[in-house]
Structure formats: structure tokens, C-alpha cells
Design brief:
Blueprint lengths: L9 H5 L4 E6 L2 H4 L12 H4 L2 H4 L2 H6 L1 H17 L4 H14 L5 E6 L5 H5 L4 E3 L2 E8 L5 E3 L18 E5 L8 H13 L2 E5 L11 H7 L3 E5 L12 E3 L3 H5 L7
Parallel strand pairs: 1-2, 1-7, 2-3, 7-8, 8-9
Antiparallel strand pairs: 4-5, 4-6
Helix pairs in contact: 9-10
Bound molecules: 2'-O-acetyl adenosine-5-diphosphoribose.
């Protein structure tokens, strides 16, 4: 692995790449005030995922799970995209304006902040907190209401509606996964921002990219299992590192 790179050097590293794939995690929204899962103030330090983020938890206590997501919705609704979200949207515009330019943003986040910042080609690997899905028939709909109904409403088929996110023990949506794996395999440059890279299968995407010849860049204030194989590591926050990307290409 190369020694850590200064945020300013990231520009030089990225310049010239015409096919970029980005994978983001909770760290990219941390500076917007949305808590991460495993960091110092991480949600999984205060709550148990098996009580709140599994299909079994919802079957056992739908109200508890519903209320937890209602609380997160309120928190996320108050948040604004930060400099990292904005820089990624800007980078996409500039790359896709180039002849043959390709840009795909793969996110594990359910908060929708990338879309709010203007990113277009976003693949939501873990779903969206702004969607509800029937736990019986699988019908999905967008629902932006805040606050949410105090109780999980029922679908026309009488099944309980649940958040439109992926829970532990559930597979990723097939079409999102195949789009993500294809984009990773085709990228010349794979940028990983703000993920602990511990949750599969999302954590395997940088490896797919690397095995197919991409250069791997990581932005994260702390080391992750990916750091060892990265071609470039930037040890700073997402907004600090990406906020400086505005002049390349
Ligand atoms: P984690 O909470 O596991 O990891 C967040 C990462 O962001 C850590 O590596 C932090 O060091 C880093 N980080 C913290 N602040 C940052 C900042 N300001 N800028 C850049 N990086 C920062 O979150 P994810 O990797 O996204 O899934 O977690 C993956 C999945 O596990 C989530 O989608 C969620 C969770 O359980 C489900 O709920 C199914």
C-alpha cells in the first residue's frame, strides 16, 4: 500500500479517470449529522441490530421497529447534504460530460442525501428509508411523510407495511446487485468513502473492482479491511477530502 495521501493529492489521483465507480457508507453522511453504525457515536453501540434491523425483529415487535425508523426519518429529514455529497454529484456531471465518461454511485445509505445533492446514477444497495414495502406481498411505494403514522399501516392485501430497506439476513435487491457488480468490474477507478467495509456483500465490490484492474482509493479517517489493498488512502473526513475535488477533469 502507498503511504496515506493528503486530501489535496486526491485530485491528482482522480484526474484523467473516465470511468469511476464510488461506494459510500454511513461515514459520508456523518458530517450532515446522520449517525454512523459502528463509529464512536454509532447506532449499533446503543442499539442491537437484531432488535431493530431484521425481519424477525419486525415480526416480533413491528411497533418498536417502526418507531425506530420513524425517529431516523425525522433525523434524516432535518439533515442537509454536505460538501462530500455535493462534490460527488459535481464529479458525476463532469465525468458524464466527457466522451465515453461513466460514473456510478453505489451507496449503502438509505438516507437519500446523494439524490438530494443532485447525484443521478445512484444504486441504492440497502434500499431507501423514504420507501415503504408490504411485508406480505412485497408491493413498494414512496412515502415521504414525517412524522410517520404512529402504527405501521396495512397494505390492500392486509400485510403490514415496513421500511423499504434491506435488513440483516435479507438478500440485496437483485437488479441493484447486478448493476453494482457490473459497474465495479468496469470501473477504471473505484473510490470508497466512509464505509467500515464489514457488511457483505457490499464490502466485496471494491475487491471485484480491484480484481478487474481498477485502481482503488479509500477515504476514511480510520483504517478498514480495504486499506491494505488500496492504491491510495486519504485519512480524513469525506467532506474534507471530497470538498476539494471541484477542479479536476
Ligand atoms: P459503519 O458505521 O459500519 O462505518 C462507517 C465508516 O465511516 C467507518 O469506517 C468510519 O471510520 C467512517 N467515518 C466516520 N465518520 C466519517 C466521515 N466524516 N467521513 C468519512 N468517513 C467517516 O457504516 P457502513 O459501512 O455504511 O446496514 O455500514 C454498512 C451497513 O451496516 C449499513 O448500510 C447498515 C449497517 O448495519 C443495514 O442496516 C443492513
Amino acid at each position: 500500500m502507498n503511504p496515506p495521501t493528503e486530501p489535496g493529492d486526491l485530485e491528482a489521483f482522480l484526474s484523467g479517470a473516465k470511468s469511476i465507480c464510488v461506494l459510500t457508507g454511513a461515514g459520508v453522511s456523518q458530517e450532515s449529522g446522520v449517525p454512523t453504525f459502528r463509529g464512536a457515536d454509532g447506532l449499533w453501540r446503543k442499539f442491537r441490530p437484531e432488535d431493530l434491523a431484521t425481519p424477525e425483529a419486525f415480526a416480533r415487535d413491528p411497533l418498536l421497529v417502526w418507531e425506530w425508523y420513524a425517529w431516523r426519518r425525522e433525523l434524516i429529514q432535518r439533515a442537509q447534504p454536505n460538501a462530500a455529497h455535493l462534490a460527488l454529484a459535481d464529479l458525476e456531471q463532469r465525468i458524464t460530460a466527457l466522451p465515453g465518461g461513466q460514473f456510478t454511485l453505489l451507496t449503502q445509505n438509505v438516507d437519500g442525501l446523494h439524490e438530494r445533492a443532485g447525484s443521478r446514477n445512484v444504486v441504492r444497495l440497502h434500499g431507501s428509508i423514504w420507501h415503504l414495502r408490504c411485508s406480505r406481498c412485497g408491493e413498494e411505494r414512496e412515502d415521504r411523510s414525517v412524522p410517520l403514522d404512529p402504527f405501521p399501516p396495512r397494505c390492500e392485501c392486509s400485510g403490514l407495511l415496513r421500511p423499504g430497506v434491506v435488513w440483516f439476513g435479507e438478500p440485496l435487491p437483485e437488479s441493484e446487485w447486478s448493476q453494482a457488480a457490473r459497474a465495479a468490474a468496469e470501473a477504471a477507478l473505484f473510490l470508497v468513502v466512509g464505509t467500515s467495509a464489514l457488511v457483505q456483500p457490499a464490502a466485496s465490490l471494491p475487491l471485484i473492482a480491484k480484481q478487474n484492474g481498477a485502481r482503488l482509493v479509500e477515504v476514511n479517517p480510520v483504517p478498514t479491511p480495504l486499506s491494505e489493498m488500496a492504491d491510495c488512502v486519504v485519512r480524513s473526513t469525506a467532506a474534507e477530502a471530497l470538498g476539494k475535488l471541484r477542479t479536476i477533469h
